[in-house]
Amino acid sequence: MASLELGAEIADPSQIDAPYGAEAPLNKPQRRFRWGRGAILIVTAAYFVVPFYAGMEYSLQRPTGGFSLTPLSQIASAPGFASALWLSTQLAVITMVVVMALMVPTVIYVHLRLPRFRRVMEVITILPIIIPPIAYSVGVLESAPQWLRNSQYLLAIVYVILAMPYVYRSLDAGLGALDVKTLVEASRSLGSSWLMTIWRVLVPNLRAALMSASVLTLALVFGEFTIANVDNWQTIPVWIYLAPTDNPRINTLVAMIALLATAVVLILIVSLDRSQSRNSRRSA
């Protein structure tokens, strides 16, 4: 009987052409809100937002009550602020360029040719965090030549060494998520040089890791105080601590603006990376 029914269905082409699942539609997955994750996000946001709001309220509040934007206009005219901002910007750019030029080829070479050396690299790159900043700055000053001691490039070299742990781990995590050998062999078989392979094949795939390393480097340069103060360089953190201003709230306002700018840059980089990854998935 089952064979006769199957033969009758096959003989009737209208039943074969009928759309599948017309009577029983597929159940779409429903998104569930996870209360644990939401609570963690709320607590984390409050941990950053509440101190920021308190600092901004202290900086912009008038003695007689209410808020005023007058301290914002007083920042640019504060003595030493422009030179401190320019010095910190120079150090940030130099540090980012030098540390990326050094660490990107090094990490790629270790992943391709010396995979067993990764543990040694992790130990070497963690040393700048272990060594105290005071001993580190004094040692660099004693070993540096005289012509370099009076230049801001010495401070940039110090920041390059301090940024190595963060840059190395960001790049190492990014390369660990890729099949580096297959990408390099495919590029080399097509006639690309090593420089073109790194620039056109590996660097685009390391976009997220490079962005993370850049944000960490910027945060390090604009937030480091001890070494710059010992070396007698007035960067933004040193200016916030030592600047003689008539209104002490300006220093707090500058610190809050620097924190807000770092957060905005981080959000923009993460949003840009997500949008580019979505576009690449759609094009694929």
Tell me about this structure:
There is one protein chain. The protein contains 15 helices and no strands. With 284 residues, it is mainly alpha-helical. The protein has a domain at 81-235: MetI-like fold, CATH 1.10.3720.10.
Features:
single chain, 284 residues, mainly alpha, MetI-like fold, 15 helices
What's the topology here?
Blueprint: H1 2-11, H2 13-16, H3 35-60, H4 70-76, H5 81-112, H6 118-130, H7 133-143, H8 146-149, H9 152-176, H10 180-189, H11 194-205, H12 207-223, H13 226-230, H14 236-242, H15 249-283
Rg from C-alpha positions? 28 Å
Count the beta strands.
0
- In CATH's first tier, which class of the domain at 81-235 applies? Mainly Alpha
Question: How many DSSP helices?
Answer: 15
Mean pLDDT: 78
Shape estimate: globular
What structural category do the secondary elements indicate?
Answer: mainly alpha
Q: Report the β-strand fraction as a percent range.
A: under 5%
Low-confidence stretches: none
The biggest sheet amounts to: none
How would you name the CATH homologous superfamily of the domain at 81-235? MetI-like
What is the name of the CATH topology of the domain at 81-235?
A: MetI-like fold
CATH architectural group of the domain at 81-235: Orthogonal Bundle
How do the SSEs run, as a string of H and E?
HHHHHHHHHHHHHHH
* Spatial gap, N to C terminus: 49 Å
Helical residues, percent: over 70%
